From TrEMBL:
Superkingdom: Eukaryota
Region of interest (Disordered), ranges: 134-173
The protein's name: Nuclear matrix constituent protein 1-like protein
Biased composition range(s): Acidic residues: 145-173
Amino acid sequence: MAPSVPCTRAAAALRMKQIALDNQDRTIRCLRAQLATERRGLTATKKELEETQVALEASHKVIAGLTEIDLSMYKKIERMKVKKQQVRANHMECHQKFQARIHEAEDSMQAQHLLIEALVDEKDSLLQTIHGLQEANNAPAPFDGDWEEEPEEEPEEEEIEDIPLGEGEIDDE
């Protein structure tokens, strides 16, 4: 028994070392598998990060473009507002000028109307004076006492002939 004990102990120790090595080997394989999984995950994460970074850069470019468009539109709107104010001011100025012209024309028409009334009154007075002088001189009246005023002529509107609508043919006769 004695001679086999050291062999058994050595075999047991060897066997324990073999089990420990097998356990370490399993642990190493397991850790390598975890490491490979982590690397694949890291690679996927890196790829997602790169895609996100590309998308972010594209978004920044789009935002920069939109900002530029926004500024351009803002400037155009401001120019349009200024132009609108100028147009409004010009319109008011023209309106005031036309109102002044209308008032001048109305005043002129009223003055002409008063002048015409004064001339008609003077004509009537002259006719009465002439009539009175003719009676005083026993002269025949060149016209009867009923003076008829001629009606004011209104401009005649040109009549537009009705042109029958044909089929678009032109007759050169």
